[in-house]
Design goal:
Order of helices and strands: HHHEHEHEHEHEEEEHHEEHHE
Number of helices: 11
Number of strands: 11
Structural class: alpha/beta
CATH topology of one domain: Aspartate Aminotransferase, domain 2
CATH class of one domain: Alpha Beta
Largest sheet: 7 strands, mixed
Strand content: 5-15%
Distance between the termini: 26 Å
CATH superfamily of one domain: Type I PLP-dependent aspartate aminotransferase-like (Major domain)
Strand order of the largest sheet: 1-8-7-5-4-2-3
Radius of gyration: 20 Å
Length: about 325
């Protein structure tokens, strides 16, 4: 059976794409075909501009989250240095830090938001003297202690990188993910609130980070001073990004209304947001078992998977005590 009380149509998996946008998408694809330019073209630039207008920072598109993350870590010069990372995250986060040559030390999370604990971070900053911190926004909302974490990093001279892979559409009194730290990293993988199938984006307030990112995604061309590889986004993927970014506010509003109507009355144990915060609801998180749920956000902390000998009780508790209610964007008239 489905999660009790959730309409069957909303609980059935669907990509977050509004099929009323098919005609617009085909027009953009035709532009790429007519231009005979399938990569590094105007549609990629248009997607970057659209994302920058939504996010409030300069943006560089990639073919996936990994390329954007590696570019951010290259800019941060983490090789041979310590990077603090939450254990309650996808394995991509620590694995990419390790691939970039950084030393990962894990930080515990909070039970209420599943995101990095300021108190534990403060202790780990004193203990490990890190070069950088990777803050992960888990589940679709902003980490509740984002500002305190950013202030600590500024005071200690530590670079702050934000993993925004879940946070499409999130907002806290007008402030968007990626704007607290030095660099933000986004994913547009297939299951995200908005998707391009595969794709990523790097955002930053630092002009040199954006410049390095553009070179890094294309082998370091033209002078190869940056040792990057091929992480370019193609024009057809960028067209999906243009359409999806335009639809993002509507998708987030729809999901939040559906959650208020169908989830909130049934699950008093649901994750509660601070005043003024909106979640993109990539995951609808509750702290009670759900029959036929979509599983956990993460069912094992990364410190367990990588065999780190560190005590992170909240990360272990969260892995055992949360579930995700299925809720997929499916507005009336949007299906074909």
């Amino acid at each position: 059976m489905l999660a009790p009380g959730i309409p069957a149509d909303l609980a059935r998996f669907a990509i977050g794409f509004d099929h009323r946008d098919r005609a617009r998408l085909r027009e953009l694809w035709d532009r790429a075909l007519d231009a005979e330019r399938w990569s590094e073209g105007p549609l990629t630039e248009e997607f970057e501009t659209a994302w920058s207008e939504w996010n409030g920072l300069g943006a560089v598109a990639f073919n996936g989250w990994t390329g954007a993350a590696l570019a951010a870590l290259e800019w941060a010069e983490v090789r041979g240095r310590t990077v603090l990372c939450p254990s309650n995250t996808f394995m991509a986060t620590p694995l990419t830090i390790m691939r970039a040559g950084g030393r990962v030390e894990f930080v515990d999370c909070n039970r209420d938001d599943l995101c990095m604990s300021f108190d534990d971070l403060e202790q780990k900053v004193r203990k490990h003297r890190p070069h950088a911190v990777m803050l992960v926004h888990v589940g679709g909302h902003l980490a509740f202690e984002s500002e305190r974490i950013a202030e600590l990093c500024r005071a200690e001279g530590v670079l702050l990188l934000e993993d925004c892979a879940h946070a499409h559409g999130a907002d806290w009194n007008g402030r968007r993910p990626g704007t607290y730290g030095d660099v933000g990293i986004w994913s547009f993988a297939a299951t995200k609130t908005i998707s391009t199938g595969e794709g990523g984006m790097l955002v930053s307030r630092h002009a040199d980070a954006l410049e390095l990112a553009r070179a890094f995604r294309n082998y370091g061309k033209p002078d190869y001073a940056v040792q990057g590889l091929n992480f370019r986004m193609n024009e057809f993927t960028a067209a999906l990004g243009i359409v999806q970014t335009a639809r993002l506010p509507e998708i987030v509003a729809w999901k939040n209304e559906a959650a208020r109507l169908h989830v909130d009355p049934l699950y008093p144990s649901r994750l509660r947001l601070p005043d003024g915060m909106t979640s993109g609801l990539y995951k609808v998180i509750v702290f009670e078992p759900v029959e036929r749920s979509t599983g956990k956000v993460y069912d094992q902390p990364c410190h367990r998977l990588l065999g780190h000998d560190v005590d992170l009780p909240a990360s272990d508790w969260v892995a055992a005590n949360h579930w995700c209610v299925p809720l997929y964007y499916r507005p009336e008239g949007a299906r074909t």
